[in-house]
Structures are given as C-alpha cells and as structure tokens.
Amino acid sequence: MLITTNAIIIRERPVGENDKYIEILSDTLGIIEVSAKGARKITGSNTAGTQLYTYSKLCINKTQRGYYLNSSQVINTFYNIRFDIKKLSLVAYLSDLLRYTTPPEEPANIILRLFLNTLHYLNGDERDIEQLKVIFELRLACEIGLMPQLIGCKECYLSSSDKMYFNLYEGNLICENCLTGDELAKSLPLDKTMLHIIRYICLSDFNKIFNFKITEKYQKKVSLVSEKYLKIQLSRYFKSLEFYENI
Ligand SMILES: [Zn+2]
C-alpha cells in the first residue's frame, strides 16, 4: 500500500554502503522507521529528502515487513541549525523526547506542528533558544496527557501568591500555607512570573505560544522546572539533555 505523508526525519541509521533506516515523525503515522534504499548515495534521488531534520513529503510503501521509502520531496531543510552546535544539541534532545513519547502509527499533527514551529524559530535568530526549549517541553507534556493542574493550590484553591510550589511528581500546585515537608521535597518554588509563564504556555491557544517573550532572568529558571517535570513524569534520563546543558 502506498502512503503519502509529510514528515520530519528525526534519526538516521546507516545500513551497508548506500542505504539507511530513517526514523520519521509523520503527520498521519506518528513515529515510524522507514527503510531508505540508496539514500546515502551522493547522487541518490532520495538523498536530500532523507537528511536528518529535513521536513519532506514522503511516498512510502507499507508492506507486511515494514515501511519502505519510494520517493521524497524536500519541503524545508532548516539549514541554519546545522551550523550551531548548541541548537543542534537541543534538537537532538527534543527528538529523543519525541521518540520516547509519540506512539507509532497514530496521527501526530499537533506534535509535528509543535516541533516544526520550534525548528522554524531555531533556524532564525529572533527567539531565544532556552525559551524555545521551555515552550516545547511544556506544550509536549500537555499534548501527551501530562498537562499539569495549574488553576490553583490543590488544597485551598488559592490561585496566585508570591510563592507557590509546583509538585513535580503530582503535576499540581500547592501554596506556602498548605505545603507539608514531604511535598516541599517533591516541589520547586514558583514566583508569580514563573507561574504566569507556565500557565501561558500550557493554557494558551496554540497560535499564541511562540508569540511572547520570557525575560532572560526567567528563561533558565522556568527551563529547569519544565525539564525536571518531564524527566520525573517520564521516569527517564536523557543523555542528550546533559550534552545540551554542557555546551
Ligand atoms: Zn493552599
């Protein structure tokens, strides 16, 4: 069966001299692995369309043994990213998050859109890289069923205060008055601005999430919250994240 899909290549694995397997994030098929014969030849017709982090229209043959690439057409290469090791390492980490959280053979429109938007802004220079990381992490969490409860304190429903605590294990808020010692150990403190940023990213319309600015002072603070939240919720350590942080 022939399938046409728009997809981004998030991983490649060489096979033999001229071939490779590509892992793709597709609008209709989620994350799947596709065999791309001849895609490592310099003159191969599928060489350009199967490069890492290239967004392409792919024509794929689905057989009982797996997916095989028929033809490809480049839509966007996000060319500038490959010259910046910090950006590349962030994309590697985000790809790991995707690979771990996106199921195969299920539509992944919104997640693909989130990733493409992130790459678009990384490719330009008008958005701060740490801010893009925060938006991706928090919004991905929301899309995969890990949306935190952000309305107010889980005990007394207080919606805002100078100091709230975000329980990374339960994904909810607790105010300073209701906080117990046990919860303190599982939580990170949020001031009003941090809470506002997190609410904005998680609760706004998708079209708005990239159109705001986190001041430099807050980028790293919120980034630490979002990455710890994902790490704990997914019970997983990402080596690519450590690599990104060390650059
Ligand atoms: Zn409370």
What does this structure look like?
The protein has 247 residues and is of the alpha+beta class. It folds into 2 domains: 2-76, OB fold (Dihydrolipoamide Acetyltransferase, E2P), CATH 2.40.50; 80-147 and 187-245, de novo design (two linked rop proteins), CATH 1.20.1440. Helix content is 37%, strand content 25%. It is built from 7 helices and 8 strands, in the order βββββαααββαβααα. It has helices at residues 85-101, 109-123, 129-143, 181-186, 192-203, 216-234, 239-245; strands at 2-15, 19-26, 30-36, 55-63, 66-76, 164-167, 172-175, 187-190. The strands form 2 sheets. The chain has a 5-stranded mixed β-barrel. A 3-stranded antiparallel β-sheet has the order 7-6-8. The longest helix is centred in the C-terminal third of the chain and has 19 residues, at 216-234. The radius of gyration is 20 Å and the shape is elongated. The model has no long low-confidence stretch (mean pLDDT 96). Bound molecules: zinc ion.
